[in-house]
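Sequence dictates fold. Below is an illustrative record:

_____
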Amino acid sequence: MVSFQSPTAVPEVRLVALGATTALQQSVPVGNLRSQRIEQFLGTRNLASNTQRNYERQLRVFLDWVDKDWHMVTLNDLKNYKAHLEHQGLGLSTIGAYLTALKSFYTWMVKAGYMDKSPAAALEIPSTPEGEGKNLEAHMVRALFDALPEVGAAAARDRAILCLLIRVGLRAEEVSALDVGHYNGVEINVRRAKHQSVGLVPVDQETHEALLDYLTVRWMESQETLSSDAPLFVSYSPRNKGERLSYEGIYKLVKALAKRAGLEHIHPHRGRHTFIANMVENGVDAYLAMELSRQRSLKAYQTYSKKVRYQAAKTAFLKGKGEPERTPMNLEDLLRSRK
């Protein structure tokens, strides 16, 4: 005999309004969705690893401040955030970088169909004065090389890296990405670079010797053939010994050398400024200098070389008048010198 359930066992009918938030939607925290959007945005961009890290950090700093979902942010929120950054005492270029990251992100949000219009469209990025070259003076370069340890595989590695940064003009990210097979004894083949500025870069004799010294020490230590696809520079830290030396590792070693040398405000990219400035100082044609540095932007190249170009122009100006170059002084010393 077939039994039937009592009417009381029939589930109660529930009405759900169209457009209501479902339990599945509620299970996804807003904070997670905000982070997912950042990850999606970065995943669509062909950015250098350091640039990608900066974008992610800048966007997350904003999220910590605003505490809103992306589509709830208004232009007024962005203006208040800009005022907040200014109140923190940040420089114009730093503030501009944070706001540029937001504008770029919101442009992508619209293109991806997550928003109809960008609240950052009318946001003004503060204009910054033309940059000044940050090349290292000759005594600073000597101090950095003098600060290198004298023996050991890590010391040989650090000397080769310093040469590539200052004497060849590579970016720290490019140095990190190099494989053994990217050097043929004459040129470095840069295959991964910012703005796709890949290409061959000639290596001077001092850098060549430094690279051979490092690779010889490394080969003798391992007693293994160095394959062409092996990292050119490896870590000697106990935590990740033998692994590819990262951008952070290169940044830290330059900072450590600068501290040992008693220098401040030194970072790897100043080596690239120095490389370009030295070419200008040595009279290398600007077009050729841009080719050697793989610099695609004339404006950026002029920023790198501004300091040296001014010095060369000043020297030519005084030479044309037959006048010697005077030593800069503060006003008080200048007036005393007239007595």
